[in-house]
Structures are given as structure tokens and as C-alpha cells.
């Protein structure tokens, strides 16, 4: 019967043109022409409203189910629940208990076109018409002032001023109500797992990465899908792609200087060359990036006469030449060395040369690789 416009079900209502009926278990079946066996078999108790069109299989239901809306006769059947309100009104779905009828809430504001989610009687998240997700705040004013675009996730605790943002800002995590507020972002994984912060593009989701291994307690940084730097658990830093080389000479070079000839020393053997920047065919190091580079070298010079000689080693770069030398008196051999820090631009080259003066061109460069070598590394 109807009381003040409400349908009061007492006892059993018989089918009305097969549209709905009530059962002895106190369930109301809408759109079902068969029995309630499917609902009961799925774990539904009594007092259930079961609404169905294109009635199919009922999966196992959770305890406490009181409403089942169903349209799944075929694998491609979709189903929707439609809630309608006025154009300038709000539409609420309330989640209540015995003490509070709307302690939880999902609200859609038709006037301002935002969707809000509340927990414990307080709004905790809002999705705005500008496709911004606000967590911990309900206002977009600060984002508008900070020139934020659309599609922004704004997570705020102790919400304060938002400074001017980059045009591409899509995630803002904020806790700056006072000058002393700290803010942290925590990534938590298993004790033997890893945490990965990936930087991707349209071609690769992990072309850049910061990762932490909990099994080794090492922090790694990847660029162009390659590990560029790792900090070990003891704080040691390794850079496996850093430009670093060591080459030496294993062939004797005879009669190369002595009369002042500046001789470029060829190094034909590579001890290591991490970034493949030294070319043994041309005896040139080529800078892969602009920066400050450290170079060091040592030569064993033999077959010197007893004359007074001036000996110089040269590190010759595209920018300038660095020299180191001294006077040699009455010696048959010498081990001059040099070390410099030089600035280089991308693509600039460096090589080692030697010059011996005040004698004949009979001075040799030794083939002993432990004494005749050239090395370098990028510093900064």
C-alpha cells in the first residue's frame, strides 16, 4: 500500500505483469520473472532489493548486501545507475551509520561542476571542472594565482602559499602553512625489493630513473636507460659512463725529438676507456661534453746525450697548450711528467706531445707502458 507517497511492503506482493514482486524472504525483485534462487545462491540474505534487466549470472555477494543492480545476460552488457538533480543543485550519495547519516559523502555540484569526496564529515578530495584533483584543500584560487594549468593533482597539508608554477606542473605536494613546515614524500617497498621513480616519454616509460635497492641499500641514477651513477651503502660513488681513459705505449718510438721537434706521442694500447672517447688511431681524446677535465701523463725518454737539454711535455687542447719541463744535465734517460686541469667544450680534443731541445734528433720514447702513459677524466 501507499502511505504519504511511499511504498510499504507488508507480506507478499504478487507479480504485476511480471514487473516486480516480493518474496517470503522479504526480498523485492524488480525486472525478474524467475525466482529469487539466483540471489540466494549468491549469498544474499533477506531484505534485498534486486533490480535487473537482461538478467544473467549473480556472482557471490558480500555479507550485508541489500541492493543488487544487474544487467549481465551477455559478456558485452553494460550497466549504469542514473542519478538526476537540478541544473544548479547538488547531488549527494551518503554513507551513514547509526550515529551520522552522512559521515561519508560523494557529492556532485551541478552549479560549479566539481565532484567532492568526504570522510568523517570532512571533504578530503575534490575533482574540478579544470580537471584538477585537490586533496587536503577545496580551493583552486591559489593554483590560479600560481598560473597552474589544467590536469593538476594538488596534495596539501597545512596549506599555505603556492608560488608561481611551471606551465607544465601536473603534481603539487604542499605543506607550507608556516615558515618551519617540512614536507616529505615517502616511497615504501619490501625489504628485498626496490623503489623506482621513472621519467618517461612517448617512446620509453623508463628512459630516466632514480632507483633504490633495499637488498643492497644502493641509490642509482639512470639516464638514456643506462645507469650513470650509483651511491653504495657505504657512500662510495661510481660513475660507469663518466668519461675516463688510460692509454699507454707498447711500441718504441725512435729518433722523434732532441732538436726541438714537438712530437705528438701515439698511444696504441687502451687500459680502459669508459665512454670510448680516446682514439688510438689518431692519438686524440675528444670531449663528449663541455666541462673541466683532468689530464696526467708520464714518458720515459731514452738515448739522450750528455749535452744540457731542455725537456718539455705538452698537453695540447683545442683551447690552449699546457707545458711542463725542466733542465736535464748529463743524463741518458729521463721520466718527465705533467698534470693539468683544462676547460674543454663539446667536441674539443686533447693530445700529448714532447719536445727535447739543444741536441740532435735521436731521442726515443720508451715502449714500457708502465712509464709511458696518458690518462684523463671529466671532473665537472
Give a verbal description of the structure:
Strands 7-8-9-10-11-12-13 form a 7-stranded mixed beta sheet, with no helix packed on it. Residues 1-17 have low confidence and may be disordered. The longest helix has 5 residues, at 37-41. The chain has 4 domains: 1-82, no CATH class; 90-174, no CATH class; 194-238; 244-378, Jelly Rolls (Sandwich). It is 3% helix and 41% strand. By secondary structure, it is mainly beta. The radius of gyration is 39 Å and the shape is elongated.
- How many domains? The number is 4
CATH class wording of the largest domain: Mainly Beta
- Mean of residue pLDDT values: 85
| Spatial sequence of strands, sheet with the most strands | 7-8-9-10-11-12-13
User: In DSSP terms, counting alpha (H) and pi (I) runs of 4 or more, how many helices?
Assistant: 2
CATH architecture of the largest domain: Sandwich
Q: What radius of gyration results from the CA coordinates?
A: 39 Å
Form type? elongated
Q: How many individual β-strands?
A: 33
Main structural class:
mainly beta
Measured between the Cα atoms of the first and last residue, the distance is 86 Å
- As a percent range, the share of helical residues equals under 10%
Strand composition percent = 35-45%
What is the fold-level CATH name, i.e. the topology of the largest domain? Jelly Rolls
Q: Describe the sheet with the most strands.
A: 7 strands, mixed
Topology:
Blueprint: E1 2-3, E2 6-7, E3 20-22, E4 28-30, H1 37-41, E5 49-52, E6 67-70, E7 90-95, E8 104-109, E9 114-119, E10 122-127, E11 133-135, H2 141-145, E12 153-156, E13 171-174, E14 194-199, E15 208-213, E16 218-223, E17 226-231, E18 237-238, E19 244-248, E20 253-257, E21 263-264, E22 269-273, E23 278-279, E24 284-286, E25 291-298, E26 301-302, E27 309-317, E28 321-328, E29 333-334, E30 337-344, E31 349-357, E32 363-365, E33 373-378
Parallel strand pairs: 4-5, 5-6, 11-12, 12-13
Antiparallel strand pairs: 1-2, 3-4, 7-8, 8-9, 9-10, 10-11, 14-15, 15-16, 16-17, 17-18, 19-22, 19-33, 20-32, 21-31, 23-24, 24-31, 25-30, 25-33, 26-29, 26-32, 27-28, 27-31
